[in-house]
Specification:
2 domains, Aspartate Aminotransferase, domain 1, four-stranded antiparallel sheet, 340 residues
């Protein structure tokens, strides 16, 4: 069976610190639906990280977090501008369209990033009653290509969206990795959005994500919308305790290791002439063109990974919190062998 180590950070094991802490609270009785001390502690910690004016709603997974976020931000006639390769556009089985009832407006972008120049024409064209009205811009930090919005880029885009009386949503499934690349806090790495979908599973948690409401004007109906979108966990404390430990101490070393091992892999394969790295390696993703489908198939005999663009033999290799230098060295040797 092929090694799944570089297929996805979702394939990684649970951080043992988090696993142990989940076991530690698995005793006695607690009230359900977040009415417990463990959840209250986690919610306090979210405010310490993202600001005292914010509110957080824990949910089961990333698609649920994105759907809940957009549900709170949109009227039925409004639309979401996003990158063509955004998770909400390609990888959520139409959940935003079905559950929220919104139209997505996907834009082609070479590096996964949206800019103010890309979104401005769509806001300027509002007013036609025959068309869905752009209201939300949804970005991913880091992008689906592993590239990172700089703090200046975030500020410029947020200013443009808000000037147009729009709202900004951030899919932060891997926000921790972006913060490591930017050498900044989680709050700084998510500056500008009105709503944040915050991950955890990709950085060592077992399950669970969170919606952080950064714009308090959007908070009024969140608890009702979470229930309507089937995202209210009854035993919430088991998600909460994971976030308590993700926000301190796990996020920083876990994301650091994931980023560093991706950089190490890029370094080890950069001199293989048959391999072309197609995106800057800024977080824990490497996108590369292999010479042929045959070379991909040969490598997949040993390792599972995703073919990103089959027509161009472009693949994606992901590192994670538990990737070791030995893992990288062995995989790099297998890559070299596959193109020989």
């Amino acid at each position: 069976m092929p090694n799944a180590h570089f297929a996805s950070d979702n394939a990684a094991p649970v951080d043992p610190i988090i696993w142990t802490r989940m076991g530690n609270i698995n005793k006695g009785y607690s009230l359900a639906y977040g009415d417990d001390e463990v959840t209250r502690e986690a919610l306090d910690q979210f405010q310490q990280v993202f600001g005292v004016e914010t509110s957080t709603y824990m949910v089961f997974g990333g698609t649920g977090a994105n759907v809940l976020s957009l549900q709170a931000m949109l009227q039925p006639h409004e639309a979401v501008i996003c990158a063509q390769n955004a998770h909400i556009n390609l990888d959520e089985c139409g959940a935003p369209e079905k559950i929220v009832g919104c139209k997505l407006i996907p834009l082609e972008t070479p590096d996964g990033k949206l800019t103010q120049d890309m979104v401005r024409p769509h806001f300027d064209a509002r007013g036609d009653e025959h068309a869905a009205q752009p209201k939300v811009v949804s970005i991913t930090q880091p992008t689906e290509y592993g590239t990172v919005y700089t703090l200046d880029e975030l500020t410029a885009l947020a200013d443009e969206v808000h000037k147009a009386e729009g709202l900004l949503h951030m899919d932060g499934a891997r926000l921790y990795n972006a913060a490591i690349h930017l050498d900044c806090s989680l709050e700084q790495a998510s500056y500008g959005p009105d709503m944040l979908s915050l991950g955890g599973t990709k950085n060592g948690m077992m399950y669970g994500e969170a919606v952080v409401v950064l714009n308090s004007d959007l908070d009024e109906n969140m608890k009702f919308l979470r229930k309507q979108t089937t995202q209210l966990p009854s035993k919430m404390k088991y998600i909460a305790v994971q976030f308590t430990n993700m926000l301190n101490p796990c996020w920083y070393p876990n994301a650091t290791n994931a980023n560093q091992t991706a950089s190490l892999l890029a370094e080890k394969i950069q001199n293989i002439s048959e391999i072309e790295i197609s995106q800057p390696v800024q977080t824990n993703a490497i996108f590369a063109h292999m010479p042929s489908p045959k070379s991909i198939a040969k490598l997949q005999e040993k390792y599972d990974f995703y073919v990103w663009e089959e027509a161009f033999s472009e693949v994606r290799w992901m590192t994670n919190w538990s990737t070791t230098e030995e893992d990288v060295t062995t995989f790099a040797a297998a890559i070299r062998e596959s193109v020989a």
